[in-house]
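To whoever is on call:

I kicked off a structure prediction for a single chain this morning and the downstream step that reads the tokens threw a length-mismatch warning. I double-checked the sequence; it's 161 residues and nothing unusual in it as far as I can see. Pasting both halves so you can look.
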Amino acid sequence: MYKSLTSVLLFFAFISNGHAQKDVSKNDNTRYQKEVKATILEFFEGFHSGDTAKMKKTIDPNIAIQTIAKNKEGELKTVKVAVEKLLSAIQNRPADQKWDERLLLFKIDADANIANAWTPYEFYLNDSFSHCGVNVFQLFNDGKSWKIIALADTRKKEGCK
């Protein structure tokens, strides 16, 4: 009887401890998701204002950037974009151009060290609709902040809404 009671108590202690650990993990995941979202929003604050210094704070120097686009033959291909080229285009865009990438949704999976974010968007040039697509971000936590290590996007002009 004593062994049975001890076994039952240990079983319930194990179950309640397991639930407590899951709750902590869920709270951590929610915190990571908020931090990842804040990093992406900071990236776009820099993008919209032309502040490449702000953008650089959110990206890893080894970032991989790719766009999925149709070539002249209409085939989908990946196009690698150098981070320097992207930052230069943002920094040197004409003063009369307003770039507005509106993120429509955030789907974020994250743990302590790595995260993935999916963000459908619409892009407006000088308040006129240009195109839509999806951004896919991969980020890592360097112990101080989240850094974007990869960015891929799609672009299309039809079927956006």
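Update from on-call: the warning came from a stale cache, not from the record. Cleared it. Sanity check on the structure: The domain at 2-154 is CATH 3.10.450.50 (Nuclear Transport Factor 2; Chain: A,).
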